[in-house]
Amino acid sequence: SRLVQVSKNYRSVIRACMEDMHQAALSARDPALQSQYSTQVSILSAMELIWNLCEILFVEAAAAGPLMLRLLDWVRLHICDVDNMVREVLSSENPSKHELFWNVVDVFVLQGRMDEARHLLSKEASANPTSVNMYKILDDLMKKMPVPSLGNTQTLTEMELKWQHWHEECQRYLQDGTFASNSHMESICKILLGDERAILERKELMTTWYHFLVTRLLYSHPTVKPMELRLYAQMDLFLGGESSPEPLDTILMAAFEFEMHQVIKECSIALSNWWFVAHLTDLLDHCKLLQSHNLYFGSNMREFLLLEYASGLFSHHSLWQLGVDYFDHCPEYGRVYLELHIERIPLNTEQKALKVLRICEQRQMHEQVRSICKIMAMKALRNNRLGSALSWSIRAKDAAFATLISDRFLKDYCERGCFSDLDLIDNLGPSMLLSDRLTFLGKYREFHRLYGEKRFSEAAKLLLMLMTAHIAPCSFWMTLLTDALPLLEHKEVIFSAEQTYELMRCLEDLTAGKVDKQKFQQSNPTSARFQDDVETTKVEMLRLALARNLARVIVKEGTLEGS
Amino acid sequence: QVSVINTVDTSHEDMIHDAQMDYYGTRLATCSSDRSVKIFDVRNGGQILIADLRGHEGPVWQVAWAHPMYGNILASCSYDRKVIVWKEENGTWEKTYEYTGHDSSVNSVCWAPHDYGLILACGSSDGAISLLSYTGDGQWEVKKISNAHTIGCNAVSWAPAVVPGSLIEQPSGQKPNYIKRFASGGCDNLVKIWKEEDGQWKEDQKLEAHSDWVRDVAWAPSIGLPTSTIASCSQDGRVFIWTCDDASGNSWSPKLLHKFNDVVWHVSWSITANILAVSGGDNKVTLWKESVDGLWACISDVNKGQGGVSAVTEGQQNEQ
């Protein structure tokens, strides 16, 4: 019954859609648009019709008895062509005088709406005293007609017995010629008896073969069992030889024959969108109905359709998020499909990228996470947003790219003397270890920070470590040594003797060409000559500073405390 | 049902030989006998020309988009024996690399799965297949397979990257050892599968079924199953679907999709490999899907009407 509720929800959604479309069609000014909307409305109403029938036959699986009532409801709900006529007659001043009066009565009878029929007939009776007797008998018959009850107040056999008696009574009255003088009432009596020809005469009031089917069953086999429906469902009697069945007819026929797979197949062919079949199949699958059918595909039918539907969603700029949920509910191929599709979502904004990433991370799709982060890093780099690029490549754990970006940062520093995106670099934390260059960048920045906080000895130690531990790239040594200058020239002695020796060794390594001198000249191709001079001056200054520092420190270290 | 979503008027002055959607389905690259490569923005049904790339001296046969993680990169190959790699920098498209190592028309280019790096396979009428790998800093490394197909190679297509031993957890950060494979089709009526072993490319499989030149091959994307699928089409009007069920890739069995009345020029798979698009000289593009019982059924055809359709691409927008 929970499933029936779900089914009803689906139907109300379809109805709501239909209403919206209808409104849109009414308010649309462009005739092409209007006809488009109207087509949509008719498609949606057909969808609801089919769904409703499936709900009755499959989901609710109404048993004989209630089945009849449900089918009657179904017919009444969906055959709306006669509503206008009904309303017209009912709202007229003198309904019984209306030319369509008998049509409306017939409609009520055909749809099993006994009370309403009787109500109208009473009007006729009061207006026409001569037929009072006839009316009373007919009215009585209609009142006494046994209907399947919803509760358990009577068994099917009881009902059948009662119905049999009632049927015989009607038969007697007809044969006695009670209604002979009024053709209308006579035909109603014939309908009550389930006379096919009489019912068929009112073809235009029923409009469809399935209405005819239900009416016929009501008056000949009200206790029809679900499986017996197929015996009675025929289109030929109604359609005659004129028209051929439409897709809707084939689908409904398949439903009456309980050929669920046929229904799904026909719907897939007829409808251009997977929504209907995907959701209907899913519902039927939950009712455990599809598994009982022995098909090669078995329970994969549901997944197959859901996959198709969800794949379609992915080409939409925002509905793709729904697609993700659908894939989650496909146990076999859902994940793979999701992996393939999620990488293809255009990442126009960072928010979208983050959304996609969150989805991937929740599902441990590491490959996809990495791929997307790399794409975002590349995009950021192209737009010169180095900080963003760096954080993306860290997230992607892409060492090579991180190195590239760090180099760019360092180059920027050399050119401009300051860092961009300081916050990011300061808070790298353990991700610094992703790449050597990145580590250097982080540590170098730390050096600057220490210097700024006047923690000189720590800064000095760090600086030295950067060179001796070979964290710093050789091309940067000169810059580092230059950075050491102010520390060497400081009032207080900062570098210890040993550290000074180390610094001197670094300098010698640098200038002696053990370090690749080419790197210098490559990074400064223009005015290399001038640079050479600058380099030489720098080196000289460094040598001087180092020597002076060494002198001071030896004295300091050699001095005893207190003396 | 399948319906035409959009038609793009490219203003190419001559036959269009290839049209490819980029990774996200937002851009379309087309190339033509008029020696140009054009790039359009096709979002929301529009068509805005973004770039008109000139650089080839002969008809351009094929274009291929690289994975977006490398930036916006497009490769094109032409009758003029050149392969050009174009890159978008600061909003403008420029030539970033040109390869002239072939002695004859280069017929096909295909980028490898992004997991392998930035690698481009090129098939040429001189019978060779060259593999261009980007090594960094604007440098490309070239590996050549000479005499891959006698007379000429018409098509190349990479296999999706499958992590070997993926059932076992790979320690993160380590580069997994991929087995790189690709398929090629040639004028010797054969489809060949190539495998890289110890840095060398070797012929792994030879698939024989066609009776005329193979014009296109397409390796289907993997959906996680251990099976591999390749589609091949030929001048003999036949399209074959080759499947290999074992993971080692040794036994391939062909299934005839259909025999068309004319040359079939191109085949292309959808993202999830359940739809195959086929285009041929009979002026039609048809879409095919494998049904429940293993038979392939045509789910639509789009009649172009004006001239033969020589190229087909499956973007995600074509799915419905």
In short:
With 563 residues, chain A is mostly helical.
Task: Describe the 3D structure.
The complex is a heterodimer of chains A (about 575) and B (about 325). With about 575 residues, chain A is mostly helical. Helix content of chain A is about 70%, strand content about 0%. In chain A, helix 2 packs parallel to helix 15 (about 245-255), helix 19 (about 320-330) packs antiparallel against helix 20 and helix 23 (about 385-395) runs antiparallel to helix 24 (about 400-415). The relative contact order of chain A is 0.04. Mean pLDDT of chain A is about 80; it is low at about 290-300. Chain B has about 325 residues and is mainly beta. Chain B contains no helices and 24 strands. In chain B, strand 19 and strand 20 form a beta hairpin. Chain B is globular. Chain B starts with 15 loop residues before the first strand and ends in a 17-residue tail after the last strand. Classes of the chains: A mainly alpha (about 575), B mainly beta (about 325). Chains A and B meet through helix 18, helix 20 and helix 22 of A and loops of B. Chain A: One of its GO terms (molecular function) is structural constituent of nuclear pore.
